[in-house]
Every structure is written in structure tokens, then in C-alpha cells.
Write a structure and sequence with these properties.
This protein has 400 residues and is mainly α. It has 18 helices and no strands.
């Protein structure tokens, strides 16, 4: 068998394995912790073994998103050179492997992107149903009292609340683009289920994302109506959402925890964030050029806190402040560059399912990054990389 015959025989097999493995990874991300990482390892193995990483180097190395991604990765590793906590820094630097998934998915033709989105929605919908059944007592809780996990019994509820809103936005787009009444009815059913699921979990970041982006959901559902109608409908749904006892309780804690913080009690969810943000700004102002190095935030924060809080604070719960404290102005520039290229690409292809999903997720990621370092969270960090690497039609200016 000559080289040409070998490629013709094995290339389709590897291509299919890579595609279906990525679909499975999208499916698992909303419902498990370790399984998607295991599948992700297989994705990288196939991508490497097949030679796709060499064959398709233009698709992952020579794209508009490649420079900011590579700069971001390099910063994480060279930041270890001046870090005051190399061990902690390694924990963050190692997470740069998320971006290998961006490189691998770039080998998949653009016309298959929709199947990744379908796989994600399928997995998320299963988890939503399980979560609601946990809440109703039909199924037991797998982890504490948060109905956010399924296979492993654990998903960070902040990230989960954000991907629930992402799922709502995708469902609303699918509703807008389908003509089948039965499918529209099914989409509405799951859209309501997603909102109910959000209303029973503790993710306030998801609450704010839902409130801010609900007009887009309504716009997709009711069509190009008057702005007043869209805003009124959105307001009505948000008010109904706010009737949830869980939502009311979680939102009421914000005020009480702010008061406690200024009374000297910082060991609350909001209090710790205010403490970290205040410290992060001071750290950045004292180290504006290159920061304190990868993973150096926690030790640097101790200089401004004579009475350390009860919990370890390895990152400032804000993606922008993380980059600012760890890498100074270079870190801020790196993240802004990354987000700018990402959103520009999503906006360019916003009229198709994958481009729209990419754009909406980027918006949600930025909202979530205000209260947590979502660029390193397993679910949102990996989705960020996967969306970034997606191909789009060459006719519109992307290599496919």
C-alpha cells in the first residue's frame, strides 16, 4: 500500500473519530466533570495521531484568533518566572491545554458546526430534566443540595447557571429558524424548563445574565415586533423569574453581605469578592507592568490583609482582575485582544447557528467574568476554546 492509498484509507476514519469525539465532548460538558476531559484527551490523541495537526496547520496556526491565543498561553507559562507561588501558578498554566481543543476543532469542516451545538443542547437538556427531578424529589441529589450535577454529581453552579442562559439563547434561535410547529412546541417546553432550572439554583451570575439578555431571547421568540413589546414581554418573564424563593433569597443576600463587609465581616460570598477586588486593584497598582506572576495573587493579597479570610483565595473571581494582577498591563491587553477577536468572529457569522452561539456565549462569558474567573472554569473555559476554533465558510473570509 503506497502513501496515497494509506491516506485515502485511514484519513476518513480519523476524521470521523475526531468529529464524533468532539460531538460527545460537547454533549458531556454540561453534565459531567471528568468524562468530557477524558474524551477531550482522546480528541487530542486522534488529532495528533492522524497527522491533522500538521495537515491543517493553517486552520489553527494562521487564523486571526491564533496570535491572541498563543500570546495568552505564553503569558501563563512565562509568568511562572516571576511568580511568588510557582506551585499555584502551575495549576493555572496547565489549564492552557484547553486551547488544544480550539486547535483540534479547527480541523472540522464548517458545515458540521451545527452538530456540536445540537450535542451541547442535548446534553444540557438531559441535565436540566434530571435537575428538576432532583428538585421535585423524584431523583436524589448527587452533591449537597445543588441540582446541577448528573454523571459525577458535581458541576460548579456559577458556570452551570451561565450555560443555562446560553442554552436559552440557542433554543430561542432554533425556535426562530424552524417552521415545524411540533418542534417549536418542544423548544418552548425546554426553554421553560431551563428557566425553571435557573430559578432553583444558586448561580447569581446566571441570574444577571438572564435578566440582561432576556430581550434577545424574546426577540427571537416573537420576531421583529416593536421594541416596546419585546421589552414588556421580557420584563414580565423576568418578574415571574424573580418570584422564585431561591432567587429572592440569593439576591437579598447581596445587600446584607455588603453591609456585613463594611462592618468588618468579609467571610461571605459577596464580602470575599469585595475583599479580593479591593486587593486586586492594589496589587495591580503596585505591579502595573508585569504583575506578580502566574498564580501569585493569593500570596500578594496577604500583604493587604492582616486578618486573612477563612478560605484560600487563589484567584480574584474576576477574569480581568486575574490577568491584571498576574501579568499587569500585558495581561489586560492579552485578555481584551482575545475577547475582541472572539466577538468580532462571532458577530461576523451571527446569522447562522454556530456563529450566533459563539457570539452569545462570548457575551455571557464576559458577564460571568465580572464575578468569577470564568476563563479558567472547566465548562466555560473549554467552551470558550472550542467556539474560538470553529471554522466558518471560506466564502466569508475564514479558512474552512
Amino acid at each position: 500500500m503506497n502513501k496515497k492509498d494509506y491516506n485515502l484509507t485511514f484519513s476518513p476514519i480519523f476524521n470521523n473519530l475526531l468529529f464524533y469525539s468532539l460531538c460527545f465532548m460537547f454533549f458531556l460538558l454540561p453534565i459531567a466533570k471528568s468524562p468530557p476531559l477524558i474524551v477531550g484527551g482522546f480528541v487530542i490523541f486522534i488529532w495528533t495521531l492522524s497527522g491533522a495537526f500538521i495537515r491543517d496547520y493553517k486552520k489553527w496556526l494562521l487564523q486571526s484568533w491564533s496570535p491572541p491565543v498563543l500570546v495568552f498561553i505564553v503569558l501563563l507559562w512565562i509568568g511562572l518566572l516571576w511568580s511568588n507561588d510557582v506551585q499555584k501558578g502551575l495549576q493555572f498554566a496547565i489549564k492552557s491545554y484547553y486551547w488544544l481543543f480550539a486547535f483540534a476543532i479547527a480541523s472540522i469542516p464548517y458545515e458540521k458546526n451545527q452538530y456540536f451545538i445540537y450535542s451541547f443542547i442535548f446534553g444540557l437538556s438531559i441535565n436540566v430534566l434530571v435537575s428538576l427531578m432532583q428538585f421535585l424529589g423524584v431523583l436524589p441529589y448527587f452533591k449537597e443540595d445543588f441540582a446541577t450535577g448528573f454523571l459525577t454529581g458535581f458541576n460548579p453552579y456559577i458556570s452551570y447557571s451561565l450555560i443555562l442562559v446560553h442554552g436559552m439563547l440557542i433554543l430561542s434561535f432554533l425556535f426562530n429558524t424552524t417552521k415545524k410547529k411540533s418542534l417549536k412546541a418542544l423548544i418552548i417546553f425546554f426553554l421553560v424548563a431551563y428557566i425553571l432550572n435557573l430559578s432553583i439554583i444558586h448561580g447569581r451570575s446566571g441570574y444577571f445574565a438572564f435578566i440582561l439578555l432576556s430581550p434577545i431571547i424574546i426577540y427571537n421568540i416573537i420576531g421583529k415586533k416593536k421594541l416596546f413589546t419585546i421589552l414588556l414581554t421580557s420584563l414580565t418573564i423576568v418578574l415571574l423569574f424573580l418570584l422564585s424563593p431561591t432567587v429572592q433569597h440569593r439576591l437579598s443576600l447581596i445587600k446584607s453581605e455588603i453591609i456585613l463587609y463594611y462592618q468588618g465581616e468579609k467571610n461571605t460570598s459577596v464580602g470575599l469578592r469585595l475583599h479580593m477586588w479591593d486587593g486586586a486593584i492594589k496589587i495591580f497598582l503596585d505591579n502595573p507592568l508585569i504583575g506578580v506572576g502566574t498564580g501569585g495573587f493569593e500570596k500578594a493579597l496577604q500583604q493587604y490583609s492582616p486578618e486573612p479570610p477563612l478560605w484560600g483565595l487563589e484567584q480574584p473571581h474576576n477574569s480581568f482582575l486575574f490577568m491584571a494582577t498576574n501579568f499587569g498591563i500585558f495581561g489586560i491587553f492579552s485578555l481584551l485582544w482575545l475577547f475582541t477577536v472572539y466577538l468580532k468572529k462571532g458577530w461576523k457569522f451571527r446569522n447562522n447557528l454556530s456563529g450566533y452561539s459563539m457570539l452569545m456565549f462570548g457575551t455571557i462569558l464576559i458577564i460571568g467574568s465580572m464575578t468569577d474567573t470564568q476563563i479558567f472554569s472547566r465548562i466555560t473555559g473549554i467552551l470558550f476554546a472550542l467556539y474560538m476554533g470553529m471554522n466558518f465558510k471560506q466564502d466569508y473570509g475564514e479558512n474552512a
